[in-house]
Design a protein that fits this description.
Blueprint lengths: L2 H19 L3 H7 L1
Protein name: Pyridoxal kinase
EC number: 2.7.1.35
Keywords: Kinase, Transferase
């Protein structure tokens, strides 16, 4: 992986963790 790809992956992981910590209406749609 390039440095840019690693950075983008980490951002996605952080965003996913934020959704787990603070569930929103969109989180329910993903759970389906």
């Amino acid at each position: 992986l390039t440095t840019q790809e690693m950075g983008e992956y980490e951002l996605q992981v952080v965003a996913a963790q934020d959704r787990i910590v603070q569930p929103r209406s969109e989180f329910k749609a993903v759970k389906l």
